[in-house]
Amino acid sequence: MVNSIIIDTSIGKLFIEETDGAITELSFAGDNTSISLSGSITPVLEEAQSQIISYLEGKRTSFSLPLAPKGTAFQQKVWSALLTIPYGQTISYKELATRAGNPKACRAVGMANNRNPIVIIIPCHRVIGADGRLVGYGGGLPLKETLLTLEGASFIPGKAH
């Protein structure tokens, strides 16, 4: 059964979906009124809410939630590689491609990173340009900067040319 909630956080509204006891989606809800909630509030959703809020308050550096992102085998490899980036650290798309087992697939890795269905917990915000600048983020660069600053990560603000 699919269950979902929207939570208010310091960075805006977040949509969390859980299916069969695992988180399948965490996304930025913003002012999106087309999101429909389903099911009930489960212990997994309550724990996800608690851990996300704790992270955003600077009290948590890792997550311990069951995850089940839906995607292709390649996307799954990329998302697994994202989970190896420690709190407060950043890597380039090239490094992410290497960690995902295909160092020449930087563009494909970038697209898989962009399609990450469980933002923040699967830390796609920790991937930056090779020159250390912030590039691309579904929630926008200001939010990416906020998350990296929260974690104390090093980066150069702004988009690479």
| Number of self-contained structural domains | 2
Number of strands: 5
Could you say which overall geometry the principal axes of the C-alpha atoms support? globular
Rg over CA atoms: 15 Å
From the N-terminal CA to the C-terminal CA, the straight-line distance is 45 Å
CATH architecture of the largest domain: Orthogonal Bundle
Mean pLDDT: 91
Q: Main sheet, how many strands, which sense, barrel? A: 3 strands, antiparallel
Strand order of the biggest β-sheet: 1-2-3
> Could you state the CATH homologous superfamily of the largest domain?
Winged helix-like DNA-binding domain superfamily/Winged helix DNA-binding domain
Task: Explain the overall architecture.
- The strands form two sheets. This protein has a three-stranded antiparallel sheet with strand order 1-2-3, with helices on one face. It has a two-stranded parallel sheet with strand order 4-5.
- β2 (12-19) and β3 (22-28) form a beta hairpin.
- The protein has 161 residues and is α+β, with helices and mostly antiparallel strands.
- It has five helices and five strands, in the order βββααβααβα.
- Helix content is 32%, strand content 17%.
- The protein folds into two domains: 2-56; 73-151, Arc Repressor Mutant, subunit A (Orthogonal Bundle), CATH 1.10.10.10.
- α3 crosses α4 (106-114).
